[in-house]
Model the fold of this input.
Amino acid sequence: MTTVSKFPLLQLPDEELLRTIRVMDFYQIMSFSLISKRCKQLVQSLQIKTKPEGFNVRIDTCISLDVFFPRRTIKIFLKSCDNNQTKRLKAPLSVKVNGRPLERIDFTYSDWLEHFQTIFHMSIYLDIHNGLCNYMLDDIAKGIGAIEHLFVRNTGCFATNLKLFQKLPPAEKLTIYSNTFQDFKIPLNILIQNYTTLVILGFPPTKMTLDELLVVNSKEIKMTQVKFSSQDLNKFIKFWMKGSNPRMELLLIFTFNDFQYERTIVMKGIKASNERRGGTDPHRRKDLYRMDIYRMDGTRATISFYKRGFEISTEFHHCAIEKCISH
Amino acid sequence: MSVENAPVVDVDEAAIPVEKKMYYRFESNDKKEFRVSELAIQQSETLNRLVEAMGYTSEDVENKPAIAIENIDGKTLKLVFQWCEHHKGEAIPVDDGSVPKIVEIPEFDAKLMDIDNGLLFKLIWAADYLNIVQLLNVSCKKVANMAQGKTPAQLRRVYLLPSDEEDEAAKRAAQEAQDPRAREVEEEFEERKRQGGNSFF
Done:
């Protein structure tokens, strides 16, 4: 029998105790954090910094977490049952960090998620894919704290998709596929939430109405492969000038084909000034038409028409068209 | 001015003062004496400040008693000064706050720290007291390396870490030992709450 070499770590001076944890590698630090609440608090106190939006959680038939640090990325993988995926499991079968196993027998999915989020001090980018039904949504929701960016795809079950929004804590940004909901209709109670950024991805290409656009309460509204009628856009601009959608700083509607909104219809009856073509910025496209409009409170907005897109950007927004497109 | 254009001057070598190396004398708590060079002392922020404040001359060092380091024993202090002499003149590392912090243990340090865990523990305490940053980095790295390839359960045994239950029990025991009336006050408070009283005081 081999004797285990022992070292009274907690009896070191506080500073040297933390120094010892700091010089461990990531795997050792994470293993250490799982020993007890006190060990977790010690790791927390190291204030390990990830990159912005540096904690991505992807949920499909398993849960994978990517944690981005300035010099490296670690991949954490929570493995579910192989054969019987309909069976609801409270705990993953195994947890691996860059291929090396982590152990904590009594930890459920939510405990693992909460643990990682706590020790890395990060609000998360949560990416939900098909397969979520296999997990206990309540259990996952319980383990997830602040969500910086929620990315929802169709989980394969409309009821679960809806339930997600009831169970998960509110997110700062929401990216959503239109096929997440029946008939590609995003519920108004989701559109009305005051996200910082709302991104709607039309999959397949989706039509939205004026009423739906009027309830959106986000600062940045970005839509890809989503179409409105030119008449609806015309009415929307008029409503905005009268005070509708007061939080909106950017509305960007973008399509992949060469569709172009009919300028004369969209701007019919709207008093615009400073109409210009192209831009002084070298990145500006030649087919760009821009003009300024003013809301009743004096806020200026620039309307831009270009091949494949339309944008309303208020003077409070700093995002230019090409920046949004490049994203 | 380039090297080629520099004026050539004959130097009277006898006129150049020879810089005398100064060795300070230190004494451990078990009365063992050590002579340590001025340059080696610079690795320790604590000792460096101490000798600067004392302003000893070479004669003072010889005539006055050795500087006592009362909380470090001779065996540990020998290791500390061996390390300082080997690394004298090296720059003191500046902490960049990164986690994990990358630390390599040089061969000399690895051999020096080929010691039992009890002495390693004393060495870290000594390096902490004397504030020798790089010695702390390598000695803590040596302790961190004990975690390699270990599961949390194995780590608990290696580092003698209490479980949550043991921590709770210790906390309760400490509270009770500190204030024997604490439980009574708590019970009284609970009782008043049960009776529906809003004001405890």
Observations:
- Chain B touches chain A through 36 residues (CB under 8 Å).
- Chain B has ten helices and three strands.
- The beta strands of chain B are 23-27, 33-37, 67-68.
- The mean pLDDT of chain B is 84.
